[in-house]
Amino acid sequence: MKKYNVVVLGATGAVGIEFRKILLERKFPIDKIKFLGNTTVGNEIEFGGRTVKVEAVTDDCFKDCQIGLFSAGASISKQVARKAAESGCVVVDNSSAWRMEADVPLVVPEVNPDDVDWNKGIIANPNCSTIQMVVALKPIHDVAKIKRIVVNTYQSVSGTGLKAIEELNIQVRDIMKGQPISQRKVYAHQIAFNCLPHIDVFLPNGYTKEEMKMVNETKKIMGDDGIRVTATTVRVPVMYAHSEAVNIETEKKITAAEVRALLSKAPGVTVVDDPSQNQYPLAIHAEGKDDVFVGRIREDESLDTGINMWVVSDNIRKGAALNAVQIAELLIKKNLV
Questions:
Q1: Per the structure, how many domains does the chain have?
Q2: Which of 52, 125, 297, 308 is most buried, most CB within 10 Å of its CB?
Q3: Can you name the residues that pair with 146 across neighbouring β-strands?
Q4: 89: DSSP letter
Q5: 295 and 136 Cβ atoms separated by less than 8 Å
Q6: Which value, in Å, is the radius of gyration of the alpha carbons in the chain?
Q7: Domain check: are 119 and 85 in the same one?
């Protein structure tokens, strides 16, 4: 089997750590591996029986690398992704930097795998909340054509990074000890035992940037600008896995039973839908898992062609690192690297 030189940018962050785990779990065909960081330059990381020292980003650090997995934020990606691509390294970028660029594919392998064919050296990994939703909706769209999506998200703090996880832990400990909150740096308000209808910055239209990501990315991934999408995104005091209440309106009538049957056969989806036994997707069960979990599938009583569902997935795995590694695997399968 051919092996590849892989570079991971942001190797010590929450997604970078998951990149490393998933590459090993999936036995990715690695020859040489390079880890790039900023504040962790010089740190040594054990990886699959070898010790790898974290390096700084330089102009020639992507030379001789065929695949780059990036998760270091949009500003850094904007600075270096093109340079990496010019060096012959195909970049799979987890930030928002390239998602809506016309010449950059925005890919979820279960939904639009063939879009990788027209990459020019950069492929964008979608927003975590968008990824899990479109994995669940694409099989329905193919059969009944979705006209409109209304989604409310309940997103874990890991989506903000390791500092947010630490902050939630500290706040919970403070409250349980009957002490005042000692740390509130990551979010505008206390996150412990609270819900914040505020993810990313607010835009002039009253939506947040996170909400508009879901609107715009869904259309690009599904290849259908006619789908109407509206979103409300909420940060909740959960460590890992995002949950979503999704309502769709379709052109063609489709029953809840038909949706259940479709999704039961869909790649990357696990249906957990037996309310009589209290069986439905939970964040604590999705954590660490690869699939998107779907339940509470039911017909919308207010609409002739409406479906409601509950969609849960680990945002750091399928919502970020796993999806990127799957894209890299697609590149290999299609002989594009």
A1: 2
A2: 125
A3: 250
A4: P
A5: no
A6: 20
A7: yes
Domain shared by 141 and 28, yes or no: no
Alpha carbon distance 246, 148 (integer Å): 10
Structure confidence by residue, pLDDT tens digits, 274-297: 999 999 999 999 999 999 999 999
User: Active-site residues: which are they?
Assistant: 128, 242
Its sign, for the CA torsion 241, 317, 104, 334, is negative
Q: The whole model's pTM is what?
A: 0.95
Nearest CA among 278, 286, 329, 337 for reference residue 311: 286
106 and 143 together in one domain: no
pLDDT per position as a tens digit, 164-206: 999 999 999 999 999 999 999 999 999 999 999 999 999 999 9
Task: Give the pair of three-digit tokens for residue 189.
Answer: 């308000």
Which residues constitute the domain of residue 295? 130-315
Q: What is the DSSP letter of 276?
A: G
Tokens of 307: 């479906």
On whether both 101 and 240 belong to a single domain, the answer is no
Q: Are residues 137 and 116 part of one domain?
A: no
| Count of residues making up the chain | 337
